[in-house]
Amino acid sequence: MTDGLKMSHVSHLFGENRVLRDISFDVAPGELVCLLGPSGCGKTTALRLAAGLEKLQVGEISVDDQIVAQPGGYVEPEKRGVGMVFQDYALFPHLNVAKNIGFGLRHFSEADRMSAIKAALEQVGMSEYLNAYPHELSGGQQQRIALARALAPKPRIMLLDEPFSGLDVARRADLRDTTLHVLKDAGIATVMVTHDPQEAMYMADRIIIMNEGQIMQDGSPETLYFRPENRFVASFFGEVNRFSGTVVDGKVATPFGDVDSQSIENGTEVEVLIRPEGLHIGEALNGHDVLAHVDAVRVLGEVNLVHLTLEAGAHIHARVPRRFSPINQPSVAITLDPDMAFVFPMT
Ligand SMILES: Nc1ncnc2c1ncn2[C@@H]1O[C@H](COP(=O)(O)OP(=O)(O)OP(=O)(O)O)[C@@H](O)[C@H]1O
């Protein structure tokens, strides 16, 4: 028995375009899973199939162990126990907040409906806006109402499609936080689509990285960040410094010393990907240091991005805490944190 959402061996074609290729994953009650990937990789299609907005062609989808979609079998979206929030709020402009939320509760008695509306508004911190109209609310407030509307019928599954992308940075951070806590408190199985790795890291218990209709890796944010299984996953979480080489005696040479590559056959052409925070900067103290010229230092908030050119020629980026930034230092020594270097075969 599997509670929550289960997608098994789902494939999907739009005409000749194969947008999903045998994807399988499940989401437990109370778990928040992000589908993360570049534009066009099939995230929204997977979500729409789970919601029942798209007819399933291949595979099976179940909610709380009940099959809701299989080829030739189909449970209507409103009978799946699924709540949805999209990027564009989609509130009815001519209905006030109470009526917008109450729209999905038409089968409730009037008293139950009003108490469900009030409870949902309280969950999203919007109790005082019961009688407001959408045009009187900011984008962030409208999205809170959209979330309340999706929560009010007490869904088993919540599907969120880029729900924060229309908002400015401050409102986005605020609403992410509310959304995360509300969904966790309610114990709902949630799938959120995003193309923003930082957002996925912030929200997700688990991240499923997709590319060209396939799952590239499914795991905790920590696993994906520190133990990526392929080049796509390693480089999707932000920029990486890239070096090519060949495996010799279970190691590959980089400008910063040898990196372990035991699991790859000797003689294989490989690429070494190094995260900018895997390069540590220090003062050049002896003749054995790896030296680099400091081209520029850019403030990114709590960390600085340092643009460097190695004495040997390559241009690299290091991300360092502000207090270690080489302001006014023409050159520095670089050491590598081997945990932040990933080796993958070229092909
Ligand atoms: N109704 C449709 N008819 C035909 N092709 C479609 C349809 N919906 C999506 N597609 C195509 O399917 C592919 C996957 O689209 P999908 O929206 O699932 O990707 P996505 O990863 O969510 O991307 P985005 O972040 O840009 O929305 C794209 O090539 C898209 O053009």
From TrEMBL:
Listed PROSITE patterns: ABC_TRANSPORTER_1 (PS00211), ABC_TRANSPORTER_2 (PS50893)
GO molecular function: ABC-type ferric iron transporter activity; ATP binding; ATP hydrolysis activity
InterPro entries per record: AAA+_ATPase, ABC_SmlMolc_Importer, ABC_transporter-like_ATP-bd, ABC_transporter-like_CS, ABC_transpr_FbpC, Mo/tungstate-bd_C_term_dom, NA-bd_OB-fold, P-loop_NTPase
Gene3D superfamilies: 2.40.50.100, Nucleic acid-binding proteins (2.40.50.140), P-loop containing nucleotide triphosphate hydrolases (3.40.50.300)
Name of the molecule in the record: ABC transporter
Coiled-coil parts of chain: none
Keywords assigned: ATP-binding, Cell membrane, Ion transport, Iron, Iron transport, Membrane, Nucleotide-binding, Transport
Alphabetical list of Pfam families matching this protein: ABC_tran, TOBE_2
A GO-annotated cellular component: ATP-binding cassette (ABC) transporter complex
Residue ranges of domain ABC transporter in the record: 5-237
Biological processes annotated in GO: quaternary ammonium group transport
Domain of life of the organism encoding this protein: Bacteria
